[in-house]
Design goal:
Strand content: 15-25%
Strand order of the largest sheet: 4-9-8-7-3-10
Radius of gyration: 44 Å
Distance between the termini: 145 Å
Oligomer: single chain
Number of helices: 4
Order of helices and strands: HEHHEEEEEEEEEEEEEEEEEEEHE
Length: 386
Amino acid sequence: SRADRLGFVVFAVLASLLAVLVVTNLNNDTTESAQSVSTFADVAPPTAVPTTVAVTMPEPTATPAAVSIQPAAAPEVDDDQDASDDEDTDDDADASTADGDQADKGTSESTSTVTQTANAQPAPTTAPLQAATAVPNPQPATTAVPNPQPATTAVPNPQPGTQPISAAPANVPADAPAGGTFTHTLAATVSRPTLHTSPGGAIFTPSFNGTALPAVNPTVFGNTLVYRVLAGVPGDAWAKVYVPARPNGTTAWVQTSQFNWGSSNRMLQINVSTNTVTVFEGGNVLLTTSAVTGKSSSPTPRANGWVEEIMAGPSSAYGPRLISLGIYSDALNSFGGSVPKIALHGTNNPALMGQYASNGCVRVPNEIISQIAGMIPAGSKVVIVG
């Protein structure tokens, strides 16, 4: 039939195609080729490194003895971070002292002058010395023999500020008699008077909790630096004085040639048992008044001090006048970003008189603080008892 013929034709065509494919495949080269690959086994072994010939080093020659170099003079701290004497005026300008905190905010009694430079690195300067005083760490004289050998008594690597000012012994003045109201005073005449641990001894810098409090004249408030004398009289080359530092009652020796002598026969007494303030002259009471003293958490410390400086009250919380006493709080380590110095000042809340309500400072009525500021000179004795 017609369908059978068609099927036969299709079969013949497919068979022909298959035959052609088989013949073509037999004519192709079926041999596979391989590409040579280098491996670590084919890499040539490393050649030996030639041995380095040792070089004979020459024997060192002897060197001359080293020159004994004396350390330079101890730099004096030149730091504006002095003990500040008034409270934070920005916080207290309009504040009430009803709770007892604002009037004494910063028994440090300081403005922001000190805190602006608290982190400044002091520029080293040479401590002022008198012409007749030997330099702390003398340099070798120009006529010295080269390579001098250190003396057998020299201390290796002496530290700055620990060497005596003079090898010659200095006369030590006797302590002033205890009691009474009279005291000699010293007012600085140089900008950086030097303090010493003893007459002719090592230079000393007082501090508060690691903060150096170098002597600066005038003070940060523009007043003359004044000390109370504990030993020495006019004519003495050295005098012992109280200096502001912790612990309260820290003393130092000064060369009187850097100061002017003065005196005061008036004394300020603060009694924390009766909360009273009294001004004496000899055995006479010139003034007595009720006062506010420190609360139990920050009591007014019992200590000896002096009228360090007198200034205007920085805000109404302090009244018209403020008297720094050269004494620090024993309970506080800082206040208002500065050191907590104790002061006698006025108040804008006289109703608290007789109470324990401050952070350590002593408050009296405004009319009384004005009287006291006018009758007691800088350097006068201050005693806090009770």
